[in-house]
Specification:
It contains 16 helices and three strands. The longest helix is centred in the middle third of the chain and has 26 residues. It has a three-stranded antiparallel beta sheet with strand order 1-2-3. By secondary structure, it is mainly alpha-helical. The protein has two domains: 221 residues, Citrate Synthase, domain 1 (Orthogonal Bundle); 100 residues, Orthogonal Bundle (Cytochrome p450-Terp, domain 2). Helix 3 packs across helix 6, helix 11 crosses helix 15 and helix 13 packs parallel to helix 15. The two termini are 32 Å apart. A hairpin with a 2-residue loop joins strand 2 and strand 3.
C-alpha cells in the first residue's frame, strides 16, 4: 500500500515537543543532573530546606534571611484549614482514595480564598504559598480522620516537613527523620514539564484560576504511570517479601515483558540523582529501625534490573526508593502520591505563573483517520 505523504509526523507522548521557555527547572538526562533555578539538586538536598526551595521556585532566587523568615512565617500561618474544609474532610466516603479527597478538597478550598479570581502575579504568588501550606494539612487531616484519630492542628513553631510528619503520626519526629522528610519534599518539588505540570499548564492556558490548574495537576498525578508508581514500587517489594526471592521475581517479570515499577525514565539515561539520595536515606532508615529486609530486597531488584537491561540503560528512578523512605517515616502506602503532590504543588504553581507571563491557549492537533462520507441512516432502518 502506497504511503500517504500528507500524513503528519505524530509525536506520541509529545516526546519532542516544547511548549514554553522556562527558567525554573533544567534536567540533563544524559549526565543525571537536576537543576532548580540554576542550583543543582544535590546541593539543595544537602543545604536547603523545603521552605527555601518553595521561595526559590516561586520567586526565582534564593531568599536572604529576612525573606526566608517571612516565607516560613507565611507558610506556617497558612497551614490551618477553614472550618468548612475540615467538615468536608469528615464527610468524605470512608474508603475514598486519598488522591480523590485531595483533588476534591482543593476544588472546594477555592471558594474560601478571597483572591481566587485575582489574576495579578502578586495575588497568584500568595495563593501558591497558601496552597502549598494547606495541601500538607489536608493530607494529614484526612489520614487522622479515616483512622478515627484526633485531628492535630498545625504547629506554626515547626518546619513544614516536621509538622506534616507530626500531624500524620501523632508525635514529633526526631531531627533525622524530620530532615529526611524535608529533603524528600525538596527532591519532589519540581521536575520540568512532566505530565502533571503539563496538565496544569493546559488548564492555565485557558486562563482558569490557579486552584483549577492544581486540580488538573492532581488528577493527572494520580495515574500509576506518574505519581502512583511510588505505591506500586513498594507494593512490589512487599509482595516479594524475602531478599532471596527478589532476583527470580525480577527475571520472571522481565521474561513476561511486565513492568518493574520504579525503573526507567523518559528523560534520564543514567541514574536519577534523586534516586541516589533516597537510596541513601532508605539505607539509613533500615539501620535506624534494625530491619533491613526491604532494603536488601530493593538492592537486589536494582542489581538485577540494571544487569539484565544494561543494553537499554535502565536505572532506578526517584520513585523506587522513595516508597521505602516514606514507609520508614510512618506514612501509609496510599498516601505516597498525595505526599508527592504536597511537594510538587510548589513546582506546579511556579510553572503556571511563569506560563501566564506569555500565555497562549494550548490547542494541539489530532490526525483524523476515520471515515468521512458516511450517509446518515434513520433509526428504524438500522440493523
Amino acid at each position: 500500500m502506497k504511503a500517504d505523504l500528507s500524513t503528519p509526523k505524530i509525536d506520541r507522548g509529545l516526546d519532542d515537543i516544547y511548549v514554553k521557555e522556562t527558567s525554573i527547572c533544567f534536567i540533563d538526562g544524559q549526565r543525571g543532573r537536576l537543576v532548580y533555578r540554576g542550583y543543582d539538586i544535590r546541593e539543595l538536598a544537602e543545604y536547603s530546606t523545603f521552605e527555601e526551595t518553595v521561595f526559590l521556585l516561586l520567586q526565582g532566587h534564593l531568599p536572604n534571611s529576612a525573606e526566608l523568615e517571612k516565607a516560613k512565617a507565611d507558610l506556617a500561618a497558612s497551614r490551618t484549614l477553614p472550618p468548612s474544609v475540615l467538615k468536608l474532610l469528615r464527610t468524605m466516603p470512608e474508603h475514598a482514595p486519598p488522591m480523590d479527597v485531595l483533588r476534591t478538597a482543593v476544588s472546594y478550598m477555592s471558594g474560601f480564598d478571597p483572591e481566587r479570581d485575582d489574576s495579578t502575579r502578586a495575588a497568584n504568588l500568595r495563593k501558591a504559598l497558601r496552597l502549598t501550606a494547606q495541601l500538607a494539612t489536608v493530607v494529614a487531616t484526612y489520614e487522622r480522620i479515616r483512622k478515627g484519630q484526633r485531628v492535630l492542628r498545625p504547629d506554626p513553631r515547626l518546619g513544614h516537613a516536621e509538622d506534616f510528619l507530626r500531624m500524620i503520626t501523632g508525635k514529633r519526629p526526631d531531627p533525622a527523620r524530620a530532615r529526611m522528610m524535608d529533603v524528600a519534599l525538596v527532591l519532589y518539588a519540581d521536575h520540568g514539564m512532566n505530565a502533571s505540570t503539563f496538565g496544569a499548564t493546559v488548564a492555565a492556558s485557558t486562563l482558569a484560576d490557579l486552584y483549577s490548574t492544581v486540580v488538573g495537576a492532581i488528577a493527572t498525578l494520580k495515574g500509576p504511570l506518574h505519581g502512583g508508581a511510588i505505591e506500586a514500587a513498594l507494593n512490589m517489594i512487599e509482595t516479594i517479601g524475602k531478599p532471596d526471592l527478589a532476583e527470580n521475581f525480577v527475571l520472571n517479570t522481565l521474561r513476561n515483558k511486565e513492568k518493574v515499577y520504579g525503573f526507567g525514565h523518559r528523560v534520564y539515561k543514567t541514574y536519577d540523582p534523586r534516586a541516589l539520595i533516597m537510596k541513601d536515606y532508605a539505607r539509613k532508615l533500615a539501620q535506624m529501625q534494625g530491619d533491613d529486609t526491604y532494603f536488601r530486597i530493593a538492592a537486589t531488584i536494582e542489581d538485577t534490573v540494571v544487569r539484565e537491561l544494561a543494553s537499554k540503560r535502565v536505572f532506578p528512578n526517584v520513585d523506587f526508593y522513595s516508597g521505602l523512605v516514606f514507609h520508614g517515616l510512618g506514612i501509609p502506602t496510599d498516601l505516597f502520591t498525595p505526599v508527592f503532590a504536597l511537594s510538587r504543588i510548589s513546582g506546579w504553581t511556579a510553572h503556571v505563573i511563569e506560563y501566564w507571563e506569555d500565555n497562549r491557549l494550548l490547542r494541539p492537533l489530532d490526525w483524523y483517520v476515520g471515515p468521512r462520507d458516511l450517509a446518515y441512516v434513520p433509526l428504524d432502518e438500522r440493523a
